[in-house]
Amino acid sequence: GENVEQHPSTLSVQEGDSAVIKCTYSDSASNYFPWYKQELGKGPQLIIDIRSNVGEKKDQRIAVTLNKTAKHFSLHITETQPEDSAVYFCAASATGYSSASKIIFGSGTRLSIRP
Amino acid sequence: DAGVTQSPTHLIKTRGQHVTLRCSPISGHKSVSWYQQVLGQGPQFIFQYYEKEERGRGNFPDRFSARQFPNYSSELNVNALLLGDSALYLCASSRGQGAREQYFGPGTRLTVT
C-alpha cells in the first residue's frame, strides 16, 4: 500500500547550522509533496510544498528537493534558529480529479536546535 | 482572516459512547478533510468532503462517519468508542477538491476511558 518513510526520527543541530530531513514514498502516482511543522499543542502548519514537475523549491531558509526517479524528497533548513524546534512531517499525495485526495504522512522528525 | 476552527478542544468519553467533532473551514474553502493523529505518529487520513460530497475515505471502520453542511462546515462522528480511538482529531480545509494546500486546525483531543 501507500507508504511514506521519514528519517531521522530525531535530529539535534547547533543553532546556525543546517538540518536535513529525508523521505521516500512508494506510490508512483504521487505528484504533490507538502511539508508540515507541528509545534506542541497545535495542528500541523504547511511550511512548503513541491509538485512533481519541479525538482527544487526554495523559500527563504527552507528548501525542498524532489527526485521522482528515486522516489526521494528532502527538506533543508539553513541557518537554524531556536524557533525552528518542532516536529516536521513530510507527506505525499496522488492528487487529481479521479484520485482519492488524501495525504499520506511520514512518521515525523523531532528537530531540536541547541543554543 | 480566521483559520480553521475546531470544537471542542478537549473531550473525555467512555468506551461505547458516541462523539461528534466539529470543524469550520477557512472562508472560501470548500473542502474539508479529517485526520486522526495518535501520539508520536503522523496524521492518518479518515475522510475528505468537497461540495458536501464524500470524495475520499481512508482505512477506518464504519463506526467513523462524517458530513459537510451547505456552509462547508463539517462534523465527524464516531460510534461505539474504543480505547484505541483516543487521539488528536485534525480537520484541514482547502479551496479545491485536491490535496493541495491543506491548512489544519488545532485539533480536538479525544480521550476514551
Mean pLDDT of chain B: 94
Q: Kindly provide the radius of gyration of chain A, computed on alpha-carbon positions and rounded to a whole number of angstroms.
A: 14 Å
Strand count, sense and barrel status of the largest sheet of chain A are: 6 strands, mixed
Number of strands of chain B: 11
Helix content of chain B: under 10%
Q: Identify low-pLDDT runs of chain A.
A: none
Structural class of chain B: mainly beta
Helix content of chain A: under 10%
Total of helices of chain A:
0
- What is the radius of gyration of chain B? 13 Å
Largest sheet of chain B: 7 strands, mixed
Furnish the topology, listing elements before pairings.
The complex is a heterodimer of chains A (115) and B (113).
Chain A: E1 4-7, E2 10-14, E3 19-25, E4 32-38, E5 45-51, E6 56-59, E7 62-67, E8 72-77, E9 86-92, E10 104-105, E11 109-114
Parallel strand pairs in A: 2-11
Antiparallel strand pairs in A: 1-3, 3-8, 4-5, 4-9, 6-7, 7-8, 9-10, 9-11
Chain B: E1 5-7, E2 10-13, E3 19-24, E4 31-37, E5 44-50, E6 53-57, E7 64-68, E8 74-78, E9 87-94, E10 103-104, E11 108-112
Parallel strand pairs in B: 2-11
Antiparallel strand pairs in B: 1-3, 3-8, 4-5, 4-9, 5-6, 7-8, 9-10, 9-11
